[in-house]
Fold each of these.
Amino acid sequence: MGKVIVVGIGPGNYENMTIRADRALQSCDVIIGYSVYVDLVQEQYPGKEYYTTPMTQEAKRCQMALDFAEQGKTAAVVCSGDSGIYGMAALIYELRGECAVPEIEVIPGLTAACSGAAVLGAPLTHDFAVISLSDRLTSWETIEKRLESAAEADLSIVLYNPASHSRPDHLRRACDILLRHLPEDRLCGVVRNIGRDGESKSLMNLRELRTASVDMFCTVFIGNAMTKKILQNMVTPRGYRNV
Amino acid sequence: MGKVIVVGIGPGNYENMTIRADRALQSCDVIIGYSVYVDLVQEQYPGKEYYTTPMTQEAKRCQMALDFAEQGKTAAVVCSGDSGIYGMAALIYELRGECAVPEIEVIPGLTAACSGAAVLGAPLTHDFAVISLSDRLTSWETIEKRLESAAEADLSIVLYNPASHSRPDHLRRACDILLRHLPEDRLCGVVRNIGRDGESKSLMNLRELRTASVDMFCTVFIGNAMTKKILQNMVTPRGYRNV
């Protein structure tokens, strides 16, 4: 019997992968993933069988991995960022069900909250919430409630999937909700293409974020009440300085 | 002029470090950190100058790194988990202030939300909040408000610093707050010593979590309404299966 490994490859560049993820991809037989993520690793790991499926065929992709493992192979499912956070690990456990084989190993990776924050400076020093603006699998009412709650509790907020072709106005709608609770001048940051060619960052306030140009390659950070700009960096203190 | 690198070393084992963090520690001159974290890396990187400071001397530790950088050295400040999330990156930016030198580079690492989740299965597939129960630098009222808000919004919750010698009852108090909004049978998980000798995990419900034995080496996960136990794993679906 083979096994399925679910590998978080981090933001996309080799250096931001963990040593464990690198070793796992070196030693596996088959690598399966969404085509964009497979493109990120294919050059680094030659001699593997590669399989890609389009964006909306997550279950098919994970079932393929389980089938390869049943055939005795070590099948890696690659996820951008972490393997769990908005990743495929849960789906693979669900599809395997109450059977203990094939073995599943979950290998964590740097999620965009960590890798994007490091590009901006240190916006997540303290408590924070991670919320996806994609309503493909979640109702907009649920997303709205989570944004409200996070703002009320002065959590820093990281927004994943802030926009796509089919939902170009989600970030504006999210900002309108946040502006019910947060001041217009709340410091925000946008990071695009973290760890990839053309990586960029920009700082702005929440009013400006409302009309900012974002796409599916962006991660958005909204500061808490203490967050401040130091030179071109977004920095959330935690109070160590006053100890 | 040297530089300061703030390095997230992940949970503590070499394999869960990123390739970038490993290369940075190989090439730096000085490694500074809380003694427990320095112990984790000292063997792997011989021939460096090492400096440790106790738990409560964060500002002193970061100022040392800036001073070494002024003297032309590359000084690494090591943080367990990520370099930003409850880490030292913000403090270093604060201490440097409005001066652009010495250069600061923030190298992200696996935070316990990612590395601990992978041990439990996949509890963080969807939106979540990260909240520390330490009231050393934050008022308990703020922590309480954040717990309430996260529970009301059906966010999965990760609790950092669930207990220490000086605050043995914080987890019980946090559970009492959560139980105002969440059912007693909500699935929870505790991971101890992630990626280190003696790593362990246990699943329980929220009522049982209230009296669970935890210490400062534990990270606690509280599921959302969809979270379920599959074999011995904590799994939060996101709905891919129904697409």
Note: Helices of chain B lie at 19-27, 35-41, 58-70, 89-96, 112-120, 140-152, 170-178, 206-209.
Amino acid sequence: MKITIAVDIMGGDNPASELALGAVSAARMFAADGLELILVATPEAAKTLPELPANVSVRTAEGVVEMTDDPGIVMKDKKDSTLVLACNLCKEGIADAVVSAGNTGALFTAASLIIRRIKGVRRAALGSVIPLESPFVLLDCGANLDATPEVLLLYAKMGAIYAENVLGVENPRVALLNNGTESHKGTPLYSEAYKLLSAEESLNFVGNCEGKAVPFGACDVLVCDGFTGNIALKLIEGMGKFMSKSIKDIFHATTVAKAAGAMTFRHTKKLKKKLDPAEYGGAPFLGLKKPVIKAHGSSDAHSFFSAIKQALMYCQGGTIEKITEGLAKKTEETEE
Amino acid sequence: MKITIAVDIMGGDNPASELALGAVSAARMFAADGLELILVATPEAAKTLPELPANVSVRTAEGVVEMTDDPGIVMKDKKDSTLVLACNLCKEGIADAVVSAGNTGALFTAASLIIRRIKGVRRAALGSVIPLESPFVLLDCGANLDATPEVLLLYAKMGAIYAENVLGVENPRVALLNNGTESHKGTPLYSEAYKLLSAEESLNFVGNCEGKAVPFGACDVLVCDGFTGNIALKLIEGMGKFMSKSIKDIFHATTVAKAAGAMTFRHTKKLKKKLDPAEYGGAPFLGLKKPVIKAHGSSDAHSFFSAIKQALMYCQGGTIEKITEGLAKKTEETEE
């Protein structure tokens, strides 16, 4: 089966040529799986690309959405941008999925308006796969700042389907991020959501999860509103960076410490991977009609490669179909 | 000047005798500062105490508030408990401050009802001093789950006074915990609070702070609602534990790694301190008429010592007076 992914190589912190390297690696690695890539670049950037394998083509657009652009203006002022073109390729059926390292809000806005939400999905969410002790999907990481109990239930279902199909977790454990483990804990949003998630038989709901349990593999899907999720995601990222820096400082403190650093190099490298969300390549939008993966803004070739791999698995897993069939209908019933 | 602190040595995870050790150390260390301690224990626990210095006395109550007790029942069913007695000693003017390692919610409820809030302070908050790159006060850590923009402003003022008087930070930098740095970011609660904090001349408001900047000394006072703050505090704690465990694992992986661990022991120990909120001993309640410090539930003698030291500094700093004089009046004007 052929799977075509539109890859926006502009708009990240690194130059298009760096991201193209990751894309080409992915194209070569997964050629046998039927992967085809359409790199979307400006005409100038397109000239800097290396020789491309047969399953990689290039499309161009004049504009680039900058990190600082207000997402609200993208569909007006940046219609002729690589990001919007990548979404349009998906809408027109030329591509099956989109990957971009650009402006998160702009990607969400463009993808929501162009690719559109699955029928019955009131809110699409931004998930993030976080490694730590064992990888889990955190959602919503900021697509929508507010939520209702029904929306948290929707996130839970979409997250569980994603964890099962893309991360390969059987019967994923779903938890609510909360300020205590008891069922009545949290704001009314969370205590009400607790009731809905408990009552939903299709979910393996394991209850509330406190922040201190998060790093230790307490669940496979961690559900919260976008404000809380964004703060949690960035705190985890910040603490990971703090830790990596602190370890580096330890191993640079003295000559003896430098030797110790060399002695444990492989182990600390492994730990660094556990602390780095870029290891999983990107954050999936859930609830849209096609897979859209937001690669980390600071993606290098390696993490951009991972993001494309994740998009491929998102396509292969039948995740969209499962969300569309199972959940969309159910959500409509609940809400309308 | 004599300063008397009522110390509830029951209700923590460790036995009263362990906490008493920390209390006795503090009493000896700060005898010259006029510190006097009243240890509050059950009659049974009182019998297990070692010989006490002259500036330590003992009072007893029959009951103990357990960690699992619902805070709502404390003032009904546990009136004759060590926690309630400690608060009563404060109310009656026998003690100047309270320290307890017991049930946080129960301590907050009892202290709010017995010691009461400063006039004009609509909500008392639970602060927490977090070490990391440079120590900062995070508040509210869960005393109240919801907030208004005015309440966040109140937290900001109280937190700044605490940071200045107890942590010794001159002109403390105050920030809002938010999902982006721009002024319009966050839920309406946060974008409105941003306006109030910017307009408040007595504050050194440095804007919004994202989770990824939190560990790196971005501010001295970090303000948020109690739900978000509790999740953030526990995430920081959990990530700290995850890292300590990971470093331990690295240094136990092989014989070579064990040698490396020995070579960097002092440095990793220093890092562990940075990751451990117990290092600062306890979490201050802010907005009550007397200093109340919640020591960590898992406090050992060392961290309980630090909590008592913090209570002493809370008393010495004139923090309560400054909150009462400056801010309480202002808050009344705004709200009534």
Note: Chain B touches chain A through 51 residues (CB under 8 Å).
Amino acid sequence: MTSSNNYCVIMAGGIGSRFWPYSRKNKPKQFLDFFGAGQTLLQLTFDRYKKIVPQENIFVITNIAYENLVKEQLSELDESQILLEPTRRNTAPCIAWASQHIQQLNPDANIIVAPADHLILKEEEFIEAIQKGLEFVAHSPQLLTLGIKPSRPETGYGYIQITDEKQGDFYKVKTFVEKPQLEFAKIFVESEEFYWNSGIFLWNVHTILDAFGNIMPEIASKLTAGEEGFTSSPNISIDYGIMEKAENVYVQICNFGWADLGTWGSLHEALPKDQQKNVIIKGNTLLYECKNNIIAVPKGKLAVLQGLEDYLVADTDNVLLICRKDDESTIRRYVNDVQIKLGDEFV
Amino acid sequence: MTSSNNYCVIMAGGIGSRFWPYSRKNKPKQFLDFFGAGQTLLQLTFDRYKKIVPQENIFVITNIAYENLVKEQLSELDESQILLEPTRRNTAPCIAWASQHIQQLNPDANIIVAPADHLILKEEEFIEAIQKGLEFVAHSPQLLTLGIKPSRPETGYGYIQITDEKQGDFYKVKTFVEKPQLEFAKIFVESEEFYWNSGIFLWNVHTILDAFGNIMPEIASKLTAGEEGFTSSPNISIDYGIMEKAENVYVQICNFGWADLGTWGSLHEALPKDQQKNVIIKGNTLLYECKNNIIAVPKGKLAVLQGLEDYLVADTDNVLLICRKDDESTIRRYVNDVQIKLGDEFV
């Protein structure tokens, strides 16, 4: 295996509405410099994979609405490395299309498929894990997913249950579990049989296209027609469409400080906290009797907060959102209400 | 009495720190269009008194730091109608100076002294009351203060206790009471002997200058030296320096929808509320499970709030303040902390 057989597909087409109001329809979270660190999540993700695969082997697949954002933020990409989805069709059609595209370039390709909005805190461990995974899928016709050792009974993530069956350090998957209720999540963590489903996948291009051909032939056939077939593909996730149904799915157990920045709550879990467990993103703050909050205010702004516990305070541009941190699943409802009552200006 | 004997002194020199972050050191609340109605509190106050006294008889007394703000906001004022205090010395020196100034212009002047930041909801009743009061002080050498029939046991206002002794509809004052504790405030309201001290005063210029001469000769003598004496005057309020000590103080009982916009809480009491008792000042809001809050966001901004009860949310410019409404007396502490820790930029 030479590294020129290794490819990466960064999925950057999501709307990120659960991160509203920071994430906006015309600029979702992957295009934001979320931590005020000078790089957007997409740029951080790209730089991370550049250390693992040749730059010209990295593809970004996104909605056509975000074409300019991708070009601006990753100016080093050739136009041919940007795949533009004409419509939103979730991850299965997206991955099928990218896989066919890469197969035409290199029929021996090993592919990493990764979302653009994950937080990776330990990069060295991450790179090592990915390289080990690439090695595995280059020589074994398995679908590999990265499983994260759970540090808490998180109800916002999906879980993977492993079997005893191993190939080297890679465990065969027994089953995938959708976001569980707390009592189950607690049992999962204690069992040591369950791992967080990171949503980062590795496979050889043959293996994934075989899986599509066997399990979702309707997608495989549509995409041979090229971009035109995309719109008529079913709206379905790779997890539901392929991973939960395939027989050859393996897990690599990892520990590289991973968080899916899917929600504000996940950000609170992932980031350093003050003594009262408040997480502060950008901005200046003075806190009095405040506990366990997540606070995001724009750079240059000061937030003086008193008497808040378990709240999200997100102030940006023309929107201020304050809600109970536990109720953040209702953010989508707020966004929907805002859209209906006030129009596009605020979503 | 002709109306040309009637004068008005608008006091517009306060810092308004209890209204931070809307009120800023370089632009206190009287200079703000607080309700997004197109006029600042000072402009509203000026327009109100223009209906009662000749425009050229209205004086604005303010700190020298706010000279330009007054000139900008009241461009119809002649420069001679703006009295600039070289330092902050509370209301007694301010009123003594303005009184001497007006006496030189018209020794028969009847003067209304009024803060620039009061909310008057029923203007017709207000004008009628002031005219009646002016008539009284033109013919009777009394210090007249407007007392407001209390609608609730407010602990943020001072109270005036009346005697049975009357001149027409004007009651002689028994005593002034500083901001009371709740249990006393309740008794006051029930007694029907106590009225809110509005801080709006009426008197003939002779009467007030006699009072200064008798009760605070040190101020009277200093101010004959003109502006130079101002700085060496004691820092003392008219209430404490004169009203509580004079023997000839009368109250006119009024009911014109008055509120001292001294604090956010007073604003909450004064303004119309939604069904959940939330008061919204400017901006767009979507509220979920929110009760009894006061919410101020800039025009054009949207606040989506969930699960807040009894809070103040004040978002403006480069500061966001969220605190329990009952704890707003600590706003001064926050402002102080901000000044020390972050400097002038935010105060």
Note: Residues 15 and 184 of chain A are 29 Å apart (CA to CA).
